[in-house]
Design brief:
mainly alpha, 293 residues
Amino acid sequence: GINAEYGETIQELLTEKLLDQLPNIVHTKEGSKIAQRCIWYGKVKDRKMILKSFKGHVKDMACDPHGYLVLCAVFDTIDDTVMVRKMVLNEIQSELDGIVMSVSGRKLLKYLIAGRESSQTHSQVIESLKVGEDNAISKKDPEVRRQEILKSVSPAVVKYCVENVESLLLDNSTASLIPMVVEHAGGEVSEILTALISHLNSETMESYPVHFTLKKILKIEGNKLGEMMIGQVDTETVCGWVNSNRGAWTVLRVLECVEGERREGLVTALKKAGVDSFKESAGRDALFEFLDK
């Protein structure tokens, strides 16, 4: 087919000179497309050479709106995931600070962790990356390849979220990484939830990024996060959250997700205090309407 012929034409053009130059051209739209095609249609030895040429440039590529797509093509295509880890993922892991702070870097992390989830990656980007799927060189099942890469990178990203939860929650754009990691990283994420809970107080409860993050995670892991919240925070503190509109909405969502003695204790305490002992807000009213059912 046309793609096979196209692949052969590209292979003839893949001279060592061009491959060495790839890191210098990936920062433009056209250069990025050329590099993606070299990765898709290059032979195994060419792909290895391409990865070698990326050494030391991975962070710059990850933080670039065209460059990050080239790395996505690497994750989609190269079967030797051990080599990908050595030459690309290790550098990403050691540069997470800068990557997380960059718009394109966050897009790269979302693609790395969540794959082609339409809630995390724009459909146009997914379509443009699908072009390389029918190359003749990649043999591994795409899902197996994806899982190997995820397994390799996920512990470092989870650890990063645990250690930097406070700074991630300062802004909506970085806070959005936390629910994404909780949902898609696989493995044990309770450490992230514990770190998140230890950051909660009456002040942070009113912050939009914190509110948004809790709302998202309660949708994904409601029972687990809810149980941990009322298990690790004393009832008096949780009642205090109801004094802010966002805090009250969060308490309502938690009550919808959990059951058991701790929940009953909280419900009793709230009813005993009564609606009027809390600051007036839409969240407070919704919560007490729920309690009166």
